[in-house]
Design a protein that fits this description.
By secondary structure, the chain is α/β, with parallel strands linked by helices. It is 35% helix and 27% strand. The radius of gyration is 19 Å and the shape is globular. The termini are close together.
Length: 324
């Protein structure tokens, strides 16, 4: 990728606000060599535990890891998990704006045996417990929007992002001249329009377009892009295609497909967050859509080569690109 050092220098001056569903990712690492006598399930001998930021907090972590300044707005409970997540954010110099609520912090626990995920355990309250009233948006997010270069709306379908809140935050950002990006979850059916960027994966793009997946059929890229532009009028659309790379679209037309940069895939957890962070950072730093996508693609290529929810540093990214 040409011009990477110069782009990284510009990114170091960028400030991003991430608004969305915040959670703590917990990993239990161990081994299983026997079956329980109580039930036909493996007995896991736990070696260690690790914790990192998940959901919208992982987007923020990726932004900070790549050298930019980041503020995260989302709900963190007053509990042990919340304290642990707050410490992770402080360690990475991520400012946090807490949203109202009394629910526990969302925790996703993954049990890994010999580097393979055995199961996932979720701790979370009902989504309405996390809702933020739109009239509060100016008070909660106003100063952070004014101070940033771009706003990322990270939806994990847990309830922070409502139609009213998306509309209010988008209006505040537009008034301040900020770039607005959304990583949507189609099952939430959020109402949005005229954003700068949306970043669905292949399955989510089909859902947003109102199309059913057809087994063994090629991805209908042209139809999906045309439909999504008609429905949402987004300036840029980038669809992550997994092992097939990333599809770029503008004005309802397919611009090109950039092949995946991954050399080795160990774990795709959080790769979409890395791609979103890279795209927004690239665009906010003045890169073209294509160059921003190449940057995001390379960053995601590093992350999928790591186990667990992970991030990438500028040094890792430069080394990775130089080896290609």
């Amino acid at each position: 990728m040409k011009g990477l050092p110069a782009l990284l220098k510009k990114i170091a001056r960028v400030r991003i606000l991430v608004v969305g569903d915040v959670m703590l990712d917990h990993y239990i690492w161990g081994d299983a060599t026997r079956i329980s006598p109580e039930a036909p399930v493996p007995v896991v001998d736990i070696a260690r535990d690790s914790w990192t930021a998940g959901g919208a907090a992982n987007v923020a972590l990726n932004i900070a890891s790549l050298g930019a300044q980041c503020t995260l707005a989302g709900y963190i409970g007053r509990d042990e998990a919340g304290d642990r997540l707050g410490e992770i954010l402080r360690t990475h110099r991520i400012a946090h704006v807490n949203t109202p609520g009394t629910a526990p912090t969302i925790v996703k626990t993954r049990v890994l045996v010999q580097h393979q995920q055995l199961c996932r355990l979720d701790r979370e309250a009902a989504p309405p417990a996390y809702a933020v009233n739109a009239p509060d948006a100016a008070t909660i997010f106003g100063a952070a929007i004014q101070a940033c270069d771009a706003v990322v709306l990270s939806d994990y379908a847990k309830g922070i992002l409502s139609n009213e809140l998306v509309a209010r935050v988008t209006k505040l950002a537009r008034r301040a001249g900020k770039l607005v990006a959304l990583d949507p979850k189609p099952r939430r059916q959020l109402a949005f329009r005229d954003l700068d960027l949306i970043t669905p994966n292949k399955r989510e793009a089909l859902q947003l377009a109102g199309l059913e997946p057809v087994p063994h059929a090629p991805f209908p890229a042209a139809e999906v892009c045309a439909r999504l532009h008609k429905l949402y009028a987004t300036k840029y659309l980038v669809i992550t295609l997994g092992e097939d790379g990333m599809l770029l679209s503008s004005g309802g037309k397919v611009i090109k497909i950039i092949p995946t940069a991954a050399r080795e895939v160990f774990d795709v957890s959080g790769a979409g967050d890395t791609a979103l962070a890279g795209l927004v950072l690239g665009l906010a730093a003045g890169a073209s859509l294509e160059n921003a996508t190449h940057f995001a693609n390379a960053a995601a290529g590093v992350v999928v080569g790591k186990l667990g929810t992970a991030t990438v540093t500028p040094e890792e990214l430069v080394a990775y690109v130089n080896q290609r």
